[in-house]
Structures are given as C-alpha cells and as structure tokens.
Amino acid sequence: MTSAAPEHITTSRELLAKAQESLDQDDLLQASEKGWGAAAHMVNGVAEKRGWPHSGHRELYQIVNRLTQEASDPQLRSLFSIASSLHANFYELWMPREMVEEDLRRVRELLARLEEL
C-alpha cells in the first residue's frame, strides 16, 4: 500500500504559496482558507506517515495534541490554533489584512516544525 503522505505535504506547500498570492492580491478570504488548508494537509501528511487516522477536524486536533506531547513542543498546539482562526475567517471575514498576514507567517512556522517530525 502506498502512502499519501507526500501528496499531502506537496499540497500543503502549494496551498501556502497560493495563500501568499491571494494575500498579495488582497483576497483575504482565499488567503485565509488556503492558509488553513496548508496546515491541515501538513498535519494529514504527518499522520499518514505514522499510520494515524486523519479523516476530520476532530482527528486533526487530536493529532496536533499528540504531536505536541510527543515532541514536547507546546507551540505546535498554539500555531495550529492560529491556522484554525484562518479557517474561521474564511466564513466570517472579520480579520484585518495585518492579522491574516501575521497568521500566514505563523502557519509557515507550523509547517516547518511539522516537517521536522
């Protein structure tokens, strides 16, 4: 059986690049959702590598919590919560541009930490 982990990781990187493009075009809605998607796909990739289930939001949070404990890195939990706020912003569009920009920077940090695991 072939792992989908590389696909999730590639998709994560692509979404992060598209999030930046959307931000550059002042499309905060798409920048937000693509930032969230980048985080979610990277978590899915890590879970896939480990053979962990990852079929919904609840499991994403459980995975991040487990990785936080495993790596003794509480920043993983905080950074993932920031990514989740981008997901909420997709539906509500309440964040100013500066916050979306900062949150995308933090998503980059999350992806880098997750790729090291």
Topology:
Elements: H1 5-24, H2 28-50, H3 57-71, H4 74-92, H5 97-116
Helix pairs in contact: 1-2, 1-5, 2-4, 2-5, 3-4, 4-5
Task: Characterise this structure.
The chain is an all-alpha fold and 117 residues long. 83% of the residues lie in helices and 0% in strands. Helix 1 packs antiparallel against helix 5, helix 2 packs across helix 4 and helix 3 runs antiparallel to helix 4. The mean pLDDT is 96.
Provide the CATH architecture: Up-down Bundle
Question: What ranges have pLDDT less than 50 throughout 5 or more consecutive residues?
Answer: none
Give the helix level as a range of percent.
over 70%
- Report the structural category: mainly alpha
Class in CATH?
Answer: Mainly Alpha
Tally of individual domains: 1
Number of helices: 5
Strand content: under 5%
Short description:
The chain has helices at residues 5-24, 28-50, 57-71, 74-92, 97-116. With 117 residues, the chain is mainly α. It has five helices and no strands.
Features:
mainly alpha; 117 residues; 5 helices; 83% helix; Four Helix Bundle (Hemerythrin (Met), subunit A)
